[in-house]
Amino acid sequence: MVDWTHERHAAAAVTRIERMARTVEGADFSTPVPTCPGWDLRQLVLHTGAVHRWAASMVRDLASERLDRTAIEAGFADLPSEELAAWLHKGAGLLDEALTAHDAGAPMWAWGGDRHVRFWSRRQLHETVVHHADAALALGEAPGIAEDVAIDGVEEFLDVLPYARRWRPEVRELAGDGETISWRTGSGAAWLITLGPEGFAYERSAARATATLHTDTAAELLLVVWRRGELERHRLEGETKLLRWWADHSMI
């Protein structure tokens, strides 16, 4: 099992950005992105590259408050499509320079619970993994997500999900009276989510649950939890309506 550190997350983020840039190089940027309804490939790449630059700016300055991302996005709105892949690739270097300039534990603003530089290396890895999957699927290619990356990505999703309630009120409803949801993968990784009165908690466990979702790989599970894969294409057991309810309320 991979020992994920800030340095490893940062390196993996750079690699994934470079892979995404290669995926979109020479593509038709008017291609619709089905997993991001209303977006085409150009909008997807502009958003992703702007997020990298936004995060790099905050990490570089160890920002104590959120910077305005929309201003960064607006600055590249007129970028010619033939330059988009190279522009996205350049963002990898900018992000890497910022992330590796500081200690993992340096305090700074973050929208999740871990308000340190290390939040951003992990978040930018999985931000890019998901949006690379968006691009690949739009172009008819396989996302190609390694199992170790996907396993960490599933847990990162569960770690940040409670903090999304600030812009997704439905997340506040992810509570219950002890109901449990199991996510199990053919590669052996498994999680147990328990819904309590104050919210949900999770642990690595293959224990029996109220409802269970089975996927062949953690990569497939990662796509499902980020709503890039269809729940119904996988094996569901128990009170399946609970799995659908979770999917509807955990969309961020």
UniProtKB/TrEMBL annotation:
It comes from the Bacteria. Coiled coil: none annotated. InterPro entries: DinB/YfiT-like, Maleyloyr_isom, MDMPI_metal-binding. Pfam families: MDMPI_N. Residues 11-136 form the Mycothiol-dependent maleylpyruvate isomerase metal-binding domain. This is Uncharacterized protein (TIGR03083 family).
